[in-house]
Amino acid sequence: xxxxxxxxxxxxxxxxxxxxxxxxxxxxxxxxxxxxxxxxxxxxxxxxxxxxxxxxxxxxxxxxxxxxxxxxxxxxxxxxxxxxxxxxxxxxxxxxxxxxxxxxxxxxxxxxxxxxxxxxxxxxxxxxxxxxxxxxxxxxxxxxxxxxxxxxxxxxxxxxxxxxxxxxxxxxxxxxxxxxxxxxxxxxxxxxxxxxxxxxxxxxxxxxxxxxxxxxxxxxxxxxxxxxxxxxxxxxxxxxxxxxxxxxxxxxxxxxxxxxxxxxxxxxxxxxxxxxxxxxxxxxxxxxxxxxxxxxxxxxxxxxxxxxxxxxxxxxxxxxxxxxxxxxxxxxxxxxxxxxxxxxxxxxxxxxxxxxxxxxxxxxxxxxxxxxxxxxxxxxxxxxxxxxxxxxxxxxxxxxxxxxxxxxxxxxxxxxxxxxxxxxxxxxxxxxxxxxxxxxxxxxxxxxxxxxxxxxxxxxxxxxxxxxxxxxxxxxxxxxxxxxxxxxxxxxxxxxxxxxxxxxxxxxxxxxxxxxxxxxxxxxxxxxxxxxxxxxxxxxxxxxxxxxxxxxxxxxxxxxxxxxxxxxxx
Length: 570
Ligand SMILES: *Cc1c(COP(=O)(O)O)cnc(C)c1O
Fold this sequence. Notes:
Rossmann fold, 18% strand, 9-stranded mixed sheet, 570 residues, alpha/beta, 19 strands, 2 domains, globular, binds pyridoxal-5'-phosphate, 6-stranded parallel sheet
């Protein structure tokens, strides 16, 4: 009797993602991509979709971040025990890596929706005694190791994942690749549909690309060239041997190298970016493909704090499964909105003060900035002119930061050190603190407990961004560069405030720092600070708009309904 007998009753949409962030206790995610995948899965469960996600075990997780008093980040492995949360399936499959047969097992985690449906998530794991030492570690580290480690992980995810689904008894009607990491699944599917050499008039027609395209959906997430996985042909030959002919692969994944995004594009009938602008940027990067846009969303129930859940339940019952009900936000009295916010703010400030030894207070306008520490997000933009910031903000603002830098991202690590140095420089003038080890529970406390959510990416590098959608669910307005989702969510002085010029396609240019910083200071001084302290009524009106206009739309239920109608059942 299989673990999954209850779940193999109808054909499924298989959702492949290198990382899936469902909860902190399953630490197999690093940032936005993983959290989005987790929110996708939760919405699929709530909406009762026939869904089966596949990901890697990442047994050592991403990492636990520790920071010394100079702002220097060190990484500790995450210790966790999958068997406490997941069930091990008895089935095993194998893939060939450098000619060795590498065995894969599957852990199943059941995502249960409060509405009763369940989505089984499959975590692939190669830490088995029958594998050699070198191979056993391949599902240890998320984004760890070098290109060789990465391509092997992607063989396990893409090829191993397709085989495991079959072995577990699933029939699959669509394969959705969440980013290029899983694109090798298309090669395995090409094998499944391979035609008899006698039945075709030319050898090149044995690979039925049309049949595979009909089954595949591909979502791209990054507008940065370097963000697309690329492997050399040498490495491909070394790892794959004669699994799939290189000359055919070149026609699908690029002449010069194995480009995983191209592979996904060429073998999917539906391709999309994750916000309208990102769809356009991707279209320009990859001319000749039809690239759609489905703007991301966040899982409303997950990303609403307790005090707001309470008033939503009271005035807007059903909101979690039908976030459109936020259209009735005006039904909630101002005092109750402010009350819910004050509870969230107190929780955050108490947490921050007790963990970082800072002395933040409940009444000061609090600005939050938390996301992966990486160059294009420009965590230091706020500090472009320290004197000016001091003049504008002394006694009027306090700032809370959080975010991990990838262990190999030197610039990201430097950004954290810079924030620590600014914190020292502004001591006694503006309270600044950095919360260690950004993860989901800290993210929820932050997005709900601050007054303003700041985002300063360098255009057009923020494909979507999702933390601002989380803040909107808690009545926290965005103050952000017009990039990613904010181009669609922003209405000036209504849902929040823009930083810098309107969105147009601009090359990353360092002049943007000065232009954006200027606008940031002007609006902080003339719009945001006065409104917070002197015009509470209209401040609360804007909080309502964040919920009624932004959370109303930027949720993963709306996103999933679009994937269903435009990508899955077309
Ligand atoms: C939401 C979230 C992110 C992504 O935030 P962005 O604004 O898209 O950068 C990253 N990490 C954690 C823990 C999150 O909850």
